[in-house]
Amino acid sequence: KQEVTQIPAALSVPEGENLVLNCSFTDSAIYNLQWFRQDPGKGLTSLLLIQSSQREQTSGRLNASLDKSSGRSTLYIAASQPGDSATYLCAVEGGGFKTIFGAGTRLFVKA
Amino acid sequence: GAGVSQSPSNKVTEKGKDVELRCDPISGHTALYWYRQRLGQGLEFLIYFQGNSAPDKSGLPSDRFSAERTGESVSTLTIQRTQQEDSAVYLCASSHGTLNEQFFGPGTRLTVL
Q1: Can you give the three-state secondary structure of B18-69, one letter per residue?
Q2: Each residue's pLDDT tens digit, B38-87
Q3: How far is it, in rounded angstroms, from Cα A28 to Cα A71?
Q4: For residues A96 and B49, what is the distance between their CA atoms, to the nearest angstrom?
Q5: Are the beta carbons of B56 and A96 separated by less than 8 Å?
Q6: For residue A25, what are the β-bridge partners?
Q7: Chain B residue with minimal CA distance to A46?
Q8: Cα dist. B86→A41, A70, A72, B19, B40 in Å?
């Protein structure tokens, strides 16, 4: 059974700092991994999708890497801003097209 | 273009009543997913539809839950004889084919009294 773990559970950083969020998964037989952000009381916003054959994806200040063999992904956020404050979720899509989510990392960027 | 829409946005019901939740995917998206998010918890996968293929219902929490989708359009999630434990936000997502980026709707907040 696939399990997805995100570390840390919560993170508070000053504005401008670079940071890394971690995601690990137990079953490496995945099709893709996707990073989302969730703002309080709102739905999920897709950030980056990495297919299983890819190593990384970049969008603006965000960079996500995938090491499928070791079951790890990282989301790197450069020059953090208060508007980046949200909960960041990683999700893996595997057998049966089931998408399993981690519990999330709650990020707070202080102005 | 329009994103994924869900209705109602909020639903309060009494224990034992049936409820129906609706999801309108992005036009042209063949894949549709339902998830549940209980308060303070992560997203729980419920069911996935792809085109006209029969869905895998093994993720549904109990036989009180059922879901349907007509072709590649609207989907409904029905919960019969609701229980207080069914209280959660129900989220729907769609994607252009399988294994592609999922786009989420705003969710339906269900409260069972």
Answers
A1: CEEEEEECCCCCCEEEEEEECCCCCEEEEEEEECCCCCCCCCCCCCCEEEEE
A2: 988 889 999 999 887 888 888 899 999 999 998 778 999 999 999 999 99
A3: 6
A4: 11
A5: yes
A6: A4
A7: B103
A8: 18, 36, 32, 11, 14
